[in-house]
Design a protein that fits this description.
mainly alpha, flat
């Protein structure tokens, strides 16, 4: 939503000519992140967390469905965080709309 509004903003800064440098920098950072991701995911998978969640689902949350227990009970703070992010994005979009279209003041008669 915010990205769609950025197109409507007026140009505050003139366009730069260094797009080749930006392309090389973005490619380098993207390649480094890809290599780092491959290195991290190539390791062994530790199942202790999954076993811990499975063993705690019934006594702690009184639920038989492990996926629902994880989403509702164990990750409630994460869900709250996602709601906060959506609210912040909506606030940013509203601010951008007010920059593009300022409020019109009525003329006193």
């Amino acid at each position: 939503m915010v990205a769609a509004l950025l197109v409507k903003l007026p140009d505050f800064f003139p366009r730069r000519r260094g797009w080749v440098r930006d392309l090389l920098l973005a490619s380098g950072v993207g390649g480094a992140v890809a290599v780092l991701t491959l290195a991290v995911t190539s390791g062994t998978f530790d199942t202790s967390l999954a076993q811990s969640m499975a063993s705690l689902s019934v006594p702690e949350a009184k639920g038989q469905n492990i996926v629902n227990v994880i989403l509702v009970d164990f990750r409630a703070l994460d869900t709250f965080g996602e709601i906060v992010v959506i609210a912040a994005a909506a606030t940013a979009a509203l601010s951008l709309l007010r920059i593009v279209r300022p409020k019109r003041r009525t003329q006193p008669t």
